[in-house]
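2024-03-11 09:14:02 INFO queue: dequeued item Recombination protein RecR, len=198
2024-03-11 09:14:02 INFO validating residues
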Amino acid sequence: MAVADPIARLVKELAKLPGIGEKTAQRLAFHILKAGPGYAGDLANAIAGVIRDVRLCSSCQTLTDQDPCGICRDPERDARTICVVEGVPDLLAIERTHEYRGRYHVLHGALSPLDGIGPSDLKIRELLVRLEQSPADEIVVATNPDVEGEATALYLTKLLKPLGLKVTRIAQGVPMGGDLEYADQVTLARALAGRREL
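2024-03-11 09:14:37 INFO prediction written
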């Protein structure tokens, strides 16, 4: 069997990345070729390093090269407040706000019975073990405001409330710069329900 053309093989592999079509993969492949062997080697080493060095934090389940991760090691973070998110990109989005000073727990997904994703497929057991070993005062549920995120939030609430924990949900509603006229009914209803005094 003949070995595939190296450029075609690279394009094929790059096209497997999320959001990358064949045309973009082709542009990336030619960029790598044009940049030279030094860049290609650095890129290959970076990819190999991610696979080799990144693992889950034993406490919060985020991706890290150190265990525990930097957030879990930070003595300035409030260990008694845990923000539960679906994935690492959600954690990073909350961190960019510079508003939250607690710790996190990453579920690595959301409940989706139609896709065969149940509680045992998420890092929920790890959260319960963590709470047993190191009790918290508040769990902030920051799952996405979609069907799966809402189902996950409801499941976590039913699981955690009986433990005597304060379970809160991030506010939802009309985004900054949005027009009320174009907001859907559910978004407006949540915005009204979550109103606060000025």
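2024-03-11 09:14:37 INFO annotate: The chain has a mean pLDDT of 93.
2024-03-11 09:14:38 INFO item closed
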